[in-house]
Design a protein that fits this description.
With about 250 residues, the protein is mainly beta. The protein has one domain. About 5% of the residues lie in helices and about 30% in strands. The strands form three sheets. It has a six-stranded antiparallel barrel. The longest helix has 8 residues. The chain is globular. The relative contact order is 0.24. About 5% of the residues have low confidence. Bound molecules: calcium ion (3 copies). One calcium ion (CA) binds next to loops. Keywords: Signal. This is Lipoprotein.
C-alpha cells in the first residue's frame, strides 16, 4: 500500500460531511427501483474504498450485502508487517440494527456489523482455505467475511472497537467463532469483489434476520493492538461512510 489513504476518525465524520455538502447527489429518478444508500463520489478517498452506493436486499432466500465503490473493489490491502501485533486490517462494513443475538452472540452486545476484511499478517478463518492450498491458516490476505460486534472505546483512534471478551468471562459465541478474545465470527460466506462491486450472499437461515432492519455502509481501517491487549482490535479510521454520519438510514430492499 502506498500511504495516500485518507483516514478519518469516526468522531469527525459529521463535521466533514457538512463541510463537503451534498453537491454530488443527483436527484431521485422517477419510476426507477429503490437503490439503497447513494453516496457522493469522494475524490480524496482511495477509489477502491470510495463508496457510491450501499444496499442490503432480500433475494431468492438470501440476504445480499452489496457496496459499489468508485473503481477497483478490493484492490488495496494493508502492507504486511510480518507480525500480528500492530498489524493493519482493511474492511468493507455494513453496520446494522440487527441484534447481536441473531448470529449467536449474547443479545444487546453492541452494533452488529457484517464485514469483509483483508489482513496479510494473520488468518482468522481457521475453517476456511480461501486460497485453496490445503492450509486453512494462511489466507487472511484474501477478502473474507465476518460478523463483528462494535462498541465505543475512546482509547481507539476511530472511537470504536470490536468488543473484547474480558478474561475469565464466557460469553455466548457462534459455532464458527475463530478463537480470538473478541466478539467476531468467521461464518465462511464467500464474497465477490470485482469492478465497482463488493457483494456477499448470506442464506436467510444462517441467522435470525428480522423482517426489516437498518444499515449503513462504511469502509475502514482497523489495527491490532501492539500489546495484544484490550482493546485488541480498534477501528483506527474510516475511508468513507455512505450516510456521512453513521445514522444507519438504509432499509432492506426486496
Ligand atoms: Ca463516496
Ligand atoms: Ca483461513
Ligand atoms: Ca490456505
Amino acid at each position: 500500500m502506498k500511504s495516500h489513504v485518507l483516514l478519518v476518525p469516526l468522531l469527525l465524520i459529521p463535521t466533514l460531511a457538512l463541510a463537503h455538502g451534498d453537491q454530488n447527489h443527483s436527484p431521485p429518478k422517477r419510476g426507477k427501483p429503490a437503490k439503497g444508500l447513494v453516496a457522493p463520489v469522494s475524490p480524496k478517498v482511495t477509489a477502491s474504498f470510495d463508496l457510491v452506493r450501499t444496499e442490503v436486499r432480500r433475494e431468492g432466500g438470501h440476504i445480499l450485502f452489496r457496496q459499489e465503490v468508485r473503481e477497483e473493489a478490493g484492490k488495496l490491502t494493508p502492507t504486511p508487517t510480518g507480525q500480528l501485533a500492530g498489524s493493519e486490517v482493511f474492511s468493507y462494513v455494513w453496520p446494522t440494527s440487527i441484534d447481536s443475538g441473531a448470529v449467536g452472540f449474547d443479545a444487546a452486545q453492541g452494533i452488529l456489523a457484517f464485514v469483509l476484511t483483508a489482513h496479510p499478517d494473520f488468518d482468522d478463518t481457521p475453517l476456511e482455505d480461501e486460497n485453496g492450498d490445503g492450509n486453512k491458516g494462511n489466507d487472511g490476505n484474501l477478502w473474507h467475511s465476518h460478523w463483528v460486534v462494535l462498541v465505543k472505546d475512546a482509547s481507539c483512534p476511530g472511537g470504536l472497537k470490536v468488543r473484547d471478551i474480558p478474561e475469565g468471562t464466557r460469553p455466548k459465541l457462534p459455532k464458527t467463532w475463530p478463537g480470538l478474545p473478541i466478539l467476531i465470527d468467521s461464518p465462511g460466506f464467500k464474497p465477490a469483489l470485482r469492478g465497482q462491486v463488493v457483494e456477499v450472499r448470506i442464506p436467510e437461515e444462517a441467522a435470525t434476520f428480522p423482517a426489516q432492519f437498518n444499515y449503513d455502509g462504511v469502509t475502514a481501517a482497523l489495527k491490532v493492538n501492539a500489546n495484544l491487549h484490550d482493546p485488541l482490535l480498534c477501528v483506527t479510521g474510516t475511508f468513507d461512510v455512505a450516510s456521512g454520519d453513521l445514522s444507519l438510514p438504509g432499509r432492506v430492499l426486496r
